[in-house]
Amino acid sequence: MLAKGLIVAGVLAASAACAATPQLSAMPDVAGPFAPAPARVALGRQVFFDTRLSEPAGTSCASCHDPRQGFAGNHGSRIGVALGSRPDLVGKRNVPSALYAAYIPPLFFYQDDDAPAPTPFGGLFTDGRVDTVAELARHPLLDPLEMHNRSEADIARKLRTAPYADGFKRAFGPDVFATTASSLAALGAAMDAFLQSREMAPFSSRYDAWVQGRAHLSPQELRGLKLFKDPDRGNCASCHKFNETSSNPARSLFTDFGYDAIAVPRNRAIPANRDPRHFDEGLCATGRAKGWRDSGQWCGYFRTPSLRNVAARQRYMHNGVFSNLRDVVAFYATRAIEPERWYKDGRLFDDVAPRHQGNVNVATMPYNRRKGMRPALDDADIDAIVAFLRTLTDAPFEASAAADGAGVYSATKEGKR
Fold first, then answer.
1. Is 193 in the same domain as 223?
2. 141 and 219 in one domain?
3. Domain assignment present for 6
4. 93 and 232 both lie in a single domain
5. CATH at 70
6. In a domain? residue 234
7. Which residues pair with 282 in a beta bridge?
């Protein structure tokens, strides 16, 4: 069930021990329900939308995690990765949605009965490099390609002079700004509270209403759901897990928080990719930083995102290479049998370093098919899965999903590009 890629048995156990990363004997239960303090939620929201916290000013967390796009986005970029606070620089990865982020567990390893070795789950960012929101908040604020603050002291100074500074003193005590460390700790706690708020986990999709008996799905959407679950067809649910028998929507996050190496095509529009020697290594860079032995076995692995509100996003995959949802599903269905459709110049798995291409998942359905075979999903099947995925859109983001959908389906009619 959770075997991903070609894993060398026994190696990860030593790696995890070296890294002091938890190994769990059972999968953790779904987090929540959350009950963040309202005052902290309000502060976190103000921080999230504060354009003063970048250098130069003008870029907030919400500039990239745009509420109109399901709290994902690109800050005006058209190449699949977001613009930073300086318009001459862009990021290296597509911006993930901040919705439902509070449910992501810290990085851990789990030994499933069907897997030859423990496998990784959880961790924030698509490479799992931090475990807490407090840690996460520092990264974009200090990254020169994102919000470009020069130091934590600069961030603390901006917080002390922010319009909501008195709110921080009321919520965290009068000495909250006494040190840089205390200022950043309060910032992280406020952001953590905001991510736990109902706004960031609305569970208001048509799918949620259907599970609770308050809505109906169309025949095409129900067909898409069936294909999504079918291990011999879409096999989407093997990683994008959900529980349609539970009325608790938190049990259907449409991810197992695990990692996979699926080798999406290289996004040649990303400036860093102009160097043919540059590859985004994903989880193995995290492992190297944490001191894992043989971290190279995880190069090309990225954490499986939640599919909630996937139809509201502008770009897809960790490198933003796809601009519509139908292409994503078609890639999964045909990567193995029509590689020339996805990889330029005959370079198979062109966004994974040649020495790590053995990590790419060629073992699970539908990646285990061979060139020229009949696809596991035909065009009508792909359309049905896309229709089902649109039912995962929460009510506040339906307009964005509908606008994107018009482009997807017009493309479909023009020849299933």
1. no
2. no
3. no
4. no
5. 1.10.760.10
6. yes
7. 301
Total domains in the chain come to 2
pTM, full prediction: 0.91
pLDDT in tens, the chain (417 residues): 333 433 333 444 444 444 568 888 888 888 878 999 999 999 999 999 999 999 999 999 999 999 999 999 999 999 999 999 998 999 999 999 999 999 999 999 998 877 778 899 999 999 999 999 989 999 999 999 999 999 999 999 999 999 999 999 999 999 999 999 999 999 999 999 999 999 999 999 999 999 999 999 999 999 999 999 999 999 999 999 999 999 899 999 999 999 999 999 999 999 999 999 999 999 999 999 999 988 999 999 999 999 999 999 999 999 999 999 999 999 999 999 999 999 998 899 999 999 999 999 999 999 999 988 999 999 999 999 999 999 999 999 998 877 765 444 333 333 333
